[in-house]
């Protein structure tokens, strides 16, 4: 195990529709393990869930490149390159950051598909429909209903637990990243592109829940295969019976502990 004084900082990156403060239990657990961890929000996020819900307009039009540049800028202020842990679209950003050598390691949990993924399961299409169903949403923010959240995030949970997470952590999200991701295959210079073949980088762990509706495990396994010819360490872990809420529901600690164990195995 690496000495606590030499451990790199940890940067948590949230996904679409979830506020950064949902990472608070992870930050506390990682602090107990000796890591200095933080979870800055996306550009346009306010400090709290309530404030972001009340004023979502700064998120209008925010895209994948804006989010990447924001976190690259945050990393530029840090004394050491961090470990990046991202969920959903945060997982896509985590892969981009490590591919560009801005992080020492990355964990991408239920990551939004990168360019090159062709699988499009029905549940993923249905989960994105609240945004993709209206082209005008590309330039504005969209909020999920509790019912939509239960399908997309909380399908492996009781309705009661799903509704509690919805009330605690959901915020309006910009529609643009979903449109950019959906068009990635057809875009020569897609902001969802990641160098999976040639980038020499630190270790990467891809994590999936096998009951995820938003990013089904089939999609993440296909992402894993895109890294097959990359000489850098890439590993895959799947959690049985878990949905897209796995970073913040009652079973979050199992996922967080597995993440810590993997970092320990990488001597980080």
Mean pLDDT score: 93
The CATH class is Alpha Beta
Range of strand content: 5-15%
From the alpha-carbon coordinates, what is the Rg to the nearest angstrom? 17 Å
- Tell me the major beta sheet: 6 strands, parallel
By secondary-structure content and strand pairing, the structural class works out as alpha/beta
Cα shape: globular
CATH topology: Rossmann fold
The portion of residues assigned to helices is 25-40%
Q: Could you spell the SSE succession in H and E letters?
A: EHEHHEHEHEHHEHEHEH
Notes on the structure:
With 268 residues, the protein is an alpha/beta fold. It has a single domain, classed as Alpha/Beta hydrolase fold, catalytic domain (Rossmann fold). It is 37% helix and 12% strand. The chain has 10 helices and 8 strands. The strands form 2 sheets. It has a 6-stranded parallel sheet with strand order 2-1-3-4-7-8, with helices on both faces. Strands 5-6 form a two-stranded antiparallel sheet. Helix 1 links the parallel strand 1 and strand 2. Helix 1 packs across helix 10 (252-265). The chain is globular. The N and C termini lie close together (7 Å). The model has no long low-confidence stretch (mean pLDDT 93).
Please outline what is shown here.
By secondary structure, the protein is α/β, with parallel strands linked by helices. Helix content is 37%, strand content 12%. The protein has a single domain, classed as Alpha/Beta hydrolase fold, catalytic domain (Rossmann fold, 3-Layer(aba) Sandwich).
């Amino acid at each position: 195990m690496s000495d606590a004084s030499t451990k790199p900082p940890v940067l948590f990156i949230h996904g679409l529709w979830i506020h950064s403060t949902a990472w608070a239990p992870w930050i506390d657990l990682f602090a107990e393990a000796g890591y200095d961890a933080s979870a800055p929000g996306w550009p346009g996020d306010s400090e709290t869930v309530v404030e972001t819900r009340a004023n979502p307009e700064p998120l209008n039009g925010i895209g994948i490149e804006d989010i990447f540049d924001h976190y690259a800028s945050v990393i530029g202020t840090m004394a050491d390159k961090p470990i990046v842990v991202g969920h959903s679209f945060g997982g896509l950003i985590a892969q981009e950051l490590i591919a560009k050598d801005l992080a020492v390691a990355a964990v991408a949990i239920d990551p939004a598909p990168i360019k090159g993924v062709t699988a499009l399961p029905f549940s993923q299409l249905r989960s994105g429909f609240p945004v993709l169903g209206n082209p005008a949403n590309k330039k504005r923010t969209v909020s999920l209903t509790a019912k939509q959240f239960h399908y997309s995030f909380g399908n492996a949970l009781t309705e009661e637990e799903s509704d509690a997470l919805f009330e605690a952590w959901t915020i309006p999200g910009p529609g643009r990243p979903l449109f950019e991701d959906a068009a990635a295959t057809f875009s020569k210079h897609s902001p969802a592109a990641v160098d999976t073949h040639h980038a020499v980088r630190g270790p990467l762990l891809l994590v999936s829940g096998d009951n995820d509706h938003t990013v089904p495990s089939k999609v993440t396994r296909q992402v894993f295969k895109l890294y097959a010819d990359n000489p850098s360490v890439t590993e895959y872990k799947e959690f049985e019976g878990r949905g897209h809420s796995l970073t913040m529901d009652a079973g979050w600690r199992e996922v967080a502990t597995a993440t810590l164990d993997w970092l320990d195995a990488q001597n980080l």
